[in-house]
Here is the input.
Amino acid sequence: MGFDARAARPQTGASDAAGLRDRWRAASLAGVWLRPGDWYHPAVDALVEAVGEDRCPAAAAQRLGSARGEAGVGMTEAMDDVACLFGALERPADPVVLRSLAIGWAQGYESLPMRSTVRDPASGLPSGEYLGERLRETYGAAVRQGAHAGDTHCLVVLDVALEDLDAWRRSARAATVGRTLDQVFGEGHPMAALSDGVFVVLCPRRDHTAQLAQTLRRVVEKNAAILGLAEVMRRPTRVWVETLPDSHPAAVSLLEQLAR
Here is the structure.
């Protein structure tokens, strides 16, 4: 009987893949995934096998991104989920995987017949209409305190817009910015995606607000470079502090102007 080299190899690939998938799922559900029941998709296994065996993961990642987009999963949640896969491997996220995921997500999301305008699915941030309502509350609180909203609050505006970008690049950029705004400002600061590439944060007016805006610029550019998205950001990134006008209607008009 001849020697069979294939039989001599350790048959551990399937169990290794299953173990990696389980670690990925556990990390994602613990930290980033919103609904445990819709995490699994067959493309998960394909991506696990490709990454675990050091094969090109682009096709599997694009397929998974398309499934996430079609399911209505936000781009930020999808990217954070994939980051958990590489965390389970104790490796930095692969830009090829993130790029392919974004391409697939954009294709899947574009196929949806209806979309909500309450929250931007790519960045995970609320819409300008939401921020307009939060501004109404801010102006009302200022009046009750005998103050002017422009003295108590301001807008930090971030503009990374570039023309002629593919849908996946716009989506990946929005997801990166959404994550960065959460990283820099944290909870308690109303934020919104005003348009493709323009984002706004409502902040209390403080002595360090201008410094915080510059920190935002540095972190946005750093995160974009890490993810291989520097070429889809306006360079230099524009960040500035905008003074609130005298009235709420004027503030809503300001948001509309910034969105252009």
The beta strands are 153-159, 191-195, 198-204, 238-243. The CA atoms of residues 73 and 92 lie 23 Å apart.
